[in-house]
Amino acid sequence: MVSLFCNLEKLEEELPRWGRKGAASTGRLLLNAGELADAVEPFPWLVGRAIGMAAPYTNLGVLLVTKSARLPEVPGLGPWVTAAVSLTTDQAAALFEPGAPPPEERLRALGQAIRRAGVRARVRLDPIIPWGNWQEDYAALVERMAEELEEIDLVTLGQLRFAPGLLPRVMRRSWPLAELLSGAVLEGGKLRMPQEERMKIYRFIGELLGEQGIPWGVCKETPQVVEALKSHAGFEPQRCNCIW
Q1: What's the pLDDT tens digit per position in 128-182?
Q2: What's the Cα-to-Cα distance from 236 to each of 155, 172, 218, 221, rounded to whole Å?
């Protein structure tokens, strides 16, 4: 049984206020429909209702963050909708995302939404998990992205990060993560892999994206990392998944 808690009435009350804020800004405000849970699963029609309610406000956009392969089923998709599909490698998906659609299906669904409805396509590679032959796996993933998607507005990269109180539980439940985070350091209020290791991963995947002409940014990183990446090809320090 699924318990569904809808707050569409509250959303309808708040939309005029957000519309006024959008009118006062230089671009659209992006309403995030997938921060706390998948924006599409298990009911594509539900977020479609929210999209329809926001559509009359020309200064607002809607962000769908999802691992779902049912994105084309969402009603009301259009250019004011940003679809950010969360992807990882096949190996990482099998190990850490049981029950989720394979990355290939998610990628195919995003391509269909672009062609049918003209959504703005983004991809989240977050968290990047450097496990196994991860360099080869991410190289293959970026190549598939470039082949499947006609246009990619932005790719955001992020890495493992946990609140200090949560990390011990994570390390007890997952031996691969325990190994990766054995040398975790506290940066920006989160426990992360050391900055030098994160930078190597960002530069490697950033190079792959740059070769394909795909713009990219980082998500929830420290100012030091953003500053160090500014000279990298394709890196856009002022852009993020949650910004139009």
Answers
A1: 999 889 999 999 999 999 999 989 999 999 999 999 998 888 888 888 888 889 8
A2: 10, 36, 9, 13
Structure tokens at 236: 């856009």
Cβ 191 vs Cβ 184: under 8 Å: yes
Can you tell me the distance from the alpha carbon of 182 to that of 170, in angstroms, rounded to the nearest whole number? 11
- Which sequence spans correspond to the domains of the chain? 8-229
CA distance 145 to 238: 23
Q: What is the CATH code for 8-229?
A: 3.80.30.30
CA dist., res. 75 & res. 71, Å (int) = 9
| Total residue length of the chain | 244
CA distances from 180 to 96, 174, 206 (A): 14, 10, 21
The Cα 207–Cα 87 span in angstroms is 18
**Helix 134-148 and helix 195-211: axis angle, to 10°?**
40
96-106 confidence digits (pLDDT tens)? 999 999 999 99
213 sits in the region (left: phi over 0; alpha: psi -120 to 50; else beta) called left
Whose structure tokens read 């406000």?
57
**pTM greater than 0.85 (yes/no):** yes
Q: Exposure of 86 by Cβ count < 10 A (0-12 exposed, 13-18 middle, 19+ buried)?
A: buried
Report yes or no: 201 and 130 within 8 Å, Cβ to Cβ: yes
- Per the DSSP assignment, residues forming a β-bridge with 216 are 155, 235
